[in-house]
Amino acid sequence: MTKMLRRELKVSAIENGTVIDHIPSKSLFQVVRILNLEDLDNQILIGANLDSQKYGKKGILKLSNKFFKSEEINKIALVAPTATIIVIKDFHIIEKSNVTIPDEVFRIVKCFNPNCITNQEKVKTRFTVVDKRNLRLQCHYCERITAKDNMTFI
Amino acid sequence: MKSKSLISISDFSKEEILQLLDRAKEFEKEPIQRILENYVIATLFFEPSTRTRLSFESAVSRLGGKIISFTDSMTSSVQKGESLKDTIKTVCSYSDLIVMRHPREGSARFASEVASVPVINAGDGANQHPTQCLLDLYSIFKTQKRLDDLNIMMVGDLKYGRTVHSLVIAMCHFNTTFHLVSPTELKLPGSVKVHIKDKNLKYYQYTDIVEAIPKADIIYMTRIQKERFSDPIEYEKVKNSYILTAEMLYTIKPDMKVLHPLPRINEISEDVDELPQAYYFNQAINGIYVRQALLANILGV
Would the CB atoms of B125 and A121 count as touching at under 8 Å? Predict the structure, then answer.
């Protein structure tokens, strides 16, 4: 028989919603946290450490009846730059896109400067992305750079 | 409409800087102008800084404005655990403008976002101190009669010295050539060098103080602080290598001036004080004119 028919889905298909594919395995649960999926009542299928031809191992999220605005979904680009966003309607792929690193990052990253006002008072963090390739964020308040290596997520 | 705050020197364009320095010149000619008689200025110093505070209060007084402040943040509501946001919101209803100094970086930007009146940053931790920068610019402008095409030599702690960072960023508007003299551990950080590179300006780095002196129009001296070194032996090695002495100044440009944000410890030898090149004690008075100009501009009078 043809190859197509033997392809088996490890995580079952959804009728309507969003699939986030090609998430780096180690970032899967960070993505869950950044998108606040814990607070969602929708049906969620989570696949961890699945085989991937492109990346070796990957994570996948299937969210029934959940659709994102692009600025909402782009937040995950910080931890999962390889992620693919697939919009499903009636079991069909309507749209497939990659995430892009946003120009500004709100709330999700902690400023690494311990003396920054955002780490001392109830101030929501805000950064300008000054270098998208190496992922360097400049704090809107203390003006220090938080780089990939010392980035922690709130 | 709420007028503009001054939090970081990069909030001001080249034109705004030049306009402000022109206004400062007017206040130098006529320092007493009672144009703020109907205004109340709050000075909130969450950490002590006698020099900056007195300079601001003197500027407000010369303009006829009233000053309100707390004398010691340890005895005020801050000590009782009030948040910065609440303090600022309260003080806004008492005043037309807030001058603040705070030990946390980013505190001034945050204050300007919650305040209904303009905020002038008089130092937020190790981050910004824009009025110091404006007075440095005014001192350079006054002694060199221009800001364009100068050779600025900066000596000492270029890594942590916030006055150095702001001055470099501001001077990038004026086609400056930078001569950066520091121990290897205290070189100008990449985040500041970016501004020089963006404008395609020339900069040279040295570890020895004497080499660049003949080229300089301005020598900007800063203090090297012991606490910046993780290894005390490294500090001992460099602490005496960045001291400017009178005998180093035998080949210089005719109008060259030595600046220092003060307080000085030992990085300028006292024999320099008597030379016509020593300008660091004159800088203090320039700070008053610049702050007068800034207050008047922000309040639109």
Answer: no
Q: Which residues of chain A lie closer than 8 angstroms to B110, CB-CB?
A: 117-118, 121, 123, 141
In a domain, B265, yes or no: yes
* Option in B8, B105, B191 nearest A113 (CB): B105
How many separate domains does chain B show?
Answer: 2
Would you say residue B33 lies in a domain?
yes
Residue B1 in any domain: the answer is no
What pLDDT, on the 0 to 100 scale, is given for residue B131? 96
Q: Which of B101, B105, B114, B121 to mutate to probe the A interface, most A CBs <10 Å?
A: B105
State the residue range of the domain holding B49: 9-129+287-299
ipTM of the prediction: 0.87
User: Three-state SS string across chain A, please?
Assistant: CCHHHHCCCCCCCCCCEEEEEEEEHHHHHHHHHHCCHHHCCCCEEEEEEEEECCCEEEEEEEEECCCCCHHHHHHHHHCCCCCEEEEEECCEEEEEEECCCCCEEECCEECCCCCEHHHCCCCCCEEEEEECCCCEEEECCCCCEEEHHHCEEC
Q: Residues B181, B118: one domain? A: no
pLDDT tens track for B103-148: 999 999 999 999 999 999 999 988 999 999 999 999 999 999 999 9
> Residue B52 catalytic?
yes
